[in-house]
Amino acid sequence: MATMDGWHLGMTSARHESGPRGVETISTGKGDHGGVSYGAYQLSSKSGTLREYLDQSRYEKE
Questions:
Q1: ∠ CA 48-11-5 to the nearest 5 degrees?
Q2: Long-range contacts of 5-11, Cβ-Cβ distance < 8 Å, separation of 24 or more
Q3: Span 20-56, pLDDT tens digits
Q4: Is residue 50 within 8 Å of residue 38, measured between CB atoms?
Q5: Which residue did the predictor score with more confidence, 37 or 14?
Q6: Model-level pTM?
């Protein structure tokens, strides 16, 4: 039986979104209404979650 030891917030969603590929994951966007998605949490290019993250991050200008 699995335990919660070592689990942290976001671990479950990251595992199911990008699997072992982690933060370097970039989806093709094929068959995905959200378009191309980026990173461990698969931030969507079409829904605005990627832009929202970049706007509030220190990487806003990059």
A1: 160
A2: 10/40, 10/41
A3: 777 778 888 888 888 888 877 777 878 888 888 888 8
A4: yes
A5: 37
A6: 0.48
DSSP per residue, the chain: ---STT--TTHHHHHHHHGGGGGG-B---TT-TT-SEETTTTEETTTSHHHHHHHHSTTTT-
The total number of structural domains that make up the chain: 1
Q: Does residue 32 fall inside a structural domain? A: yes
CA–CA separation, 6 and 43 (whole Å): 24
Domain housing 17: 11-56
The reply to whether 3 falls in a domain is no
Q: Is 16 exposed, middle or buried (0-12, 13-18, 19+ CB in 10 A)?
A: exposed
